[in-house]
């Protein structure tokens, strides 16, 4: 029963939402169904299709309760055993039940909901994470997170958001919102926005699970591209930090630790996503694949990476993509060429509060043997760092800079640099 609940409960819940038309009755029906199973299956045996039995049993229980309440009759908790087929003459089609998961994802990610509400609702209702787990992952309080979920459900009711997968042009528009939510969850797991840990493996795993589900239920190229991107990034996890949790940059990672199984799967999925109309996730996955193919950092094909960023900029222009392209240009053409692009980006004011911009700028100044400029940029990056591994890494870079070039004393507690909490 524990395994069944772990593997099937969110599928069953998704179907109950469709059948009952609301979230709370569906949640209640889910627990009523498992309670009925615990009472009846030891005596009568496990049904041939446990999932379908549980769907029908939960729906039967809730409809029976609502009928009793409508007649002002007390609910007899010792009622006769449930016959899940008595309500509609048969068990639900397993294929229809599976489609309900896709409907639930699109409902949770509807554009009418605030972005943070989409993430919270998806993790709670599709992935089955507890409110406490989600609040801990995104560094907010449980009451705040719970209210966010409640408001999202109320918005779905008041706006009469349909519980469906859209068709035609609407599907492409809504799919983008769904993929964005999944990628945001993955990003928070791959590089936590704050806290003591560099990563959150559980969130990355949930995002990949969602990505697999989307591809299984809706095998479109850009869904394949997102899954490929997540798999290729996730393959590096074992090499991204030292045993003590310290950050290790890409060019210094032990590539023998990279997960070759994930890389192989990512590349196979990427091939299905690429083409003349390859989307942003597929192009980002292609960049990750170039890194995965290099035996070491020195053999990375930076010209190909710059070319892919050029295509990505045409398709999805953004200052972050420009920054990543500038870093690749620095590797292809030298630090001065990349630094010129980054300085122009920062002068526009769009990335002033973006840690990677200042950290990259600092590294390039360092490579150009300009300690004063490098120190100032590292200090700006440290002021923006929100995870302890990032803070320790940047403090160490400042200490290394002082050892190499001399300069103001700098200890590992960071007293000589701005307080990163300010």
List keywords for this structure.
18 helices; 4 domains; about 425 residues; mainly alpha; disordered C terminus
Question: Care to describe what's here?
Answer:
This protein is an all-alpha fold. It has four domains: 2-92, no CATH class; 95-218, no CATH class; 224-243 and 257-293, no CATH class; 354-422. The chain contains 18 helices and no strands. It has helices at residues 2-20, 23-44, 50-70, 94-108, 115-126, 131-137, 142-158, 169-190, 201-217, 221-234, 260-273, 280-293, 302-315, 319-333, 335-347, 355-367, 371-384, 388-405. The longest helix is centred in the first third of the chain and has 22 residues, at 23-44. The model is unreliable at 85-97 and 409-422 (pLDDT under 50).
Quick rundown:
The chain is 67% helix and 0% strand.
β-strand number: 0
pLDDT < 50 stretches = 85-97, 409-422
- Class of secondary structure makeup: mainly alpha
Helix content: 55-70%
SSE order, one letter for each helix or strand: HHHHHHHHHHHHHHHHHH
């Amino acid at each position: 029963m524990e395994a069944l609940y772990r593997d099937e409960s969110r599928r069953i819940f998704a179907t109950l939402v469709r059948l009952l038309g609301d979230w709370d009755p569906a949640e209640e029906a889910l627990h009523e169904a498992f309670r009925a199973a615990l009472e009846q299956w030891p005596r009568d045996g496990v049904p041939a299709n446990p999932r379908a039995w549980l769907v029908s049993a939960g729906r039967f229980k809730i409809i029976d309760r609502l009928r009793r309440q409508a007649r002002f009759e007390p609910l007899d908790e010792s009622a006769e055993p449930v016959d899940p087929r008595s309500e509609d003459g048969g068990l639900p089609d397993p294929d229809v039940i599976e489609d309900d998961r896709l409907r639930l994802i699109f409902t949770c990610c509807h554009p009418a909901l605030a972005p943070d509400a989409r993430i919270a609702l998806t993790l709670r209702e599709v992935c089955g994470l507890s409110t406490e787990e989600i609040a801990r992952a995104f560094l907010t309080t449980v009451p705040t997170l719970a209210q966010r979920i409640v408001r999202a459900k109320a918005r779905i009711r008041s706006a009469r958001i349909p519980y469906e997968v859209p068709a035609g042009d609407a599907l492409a528009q809504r799919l983008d919102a769904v993929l964005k939510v999944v990628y945001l969850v993955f990003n928070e797991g791959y590089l936590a926005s704050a806290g003591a840990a560099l990563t959150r493996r559980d969130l990355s795993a949930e995002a990949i699970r969602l990505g697999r589900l989307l591809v299984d239920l809706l095998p479109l190229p850009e869904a394949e591209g997102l899954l490929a991107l997540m798999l290729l990034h996730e393959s590096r996890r074992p090499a991204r930090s030292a045993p003590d949790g310290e950050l290790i940059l890409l060019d210094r990672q032990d590539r023998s630790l990279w997960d070759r199984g994930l890389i192989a799967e990512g590349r196979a999925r990427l091939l299905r996503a690429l083409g003349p109309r390859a989307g942003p996730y597929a192009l980002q996955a292609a960049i990750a694949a170039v890194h995965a193919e290099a035996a070491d950092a020195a053999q990375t094909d930076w010209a190909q990476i710059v070319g892919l960023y050029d295509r990505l900029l045409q398709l999805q222009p953004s200052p972050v993509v420009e920054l990543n392209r500038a870093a690749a240009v620095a590797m292809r053409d030298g630090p001065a060429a990349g630094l010129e692009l980054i300085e122009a980006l920062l002068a526009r004011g769009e990335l002033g509060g973006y840690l990677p911009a200042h950290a990259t700028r600092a590294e390039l100044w360092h490579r150009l043997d300009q300690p004063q400029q490098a120190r100032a940029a590292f200090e700006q990056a440290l002021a923006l760092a929100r995870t302890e591994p990032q803070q320790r890494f940047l403090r160490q870079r400042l200490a290394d800079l002082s050892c190499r070039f001399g300069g103001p004393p700098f200890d590992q507690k960071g007293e000589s640099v701005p307080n990163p909490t300010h």
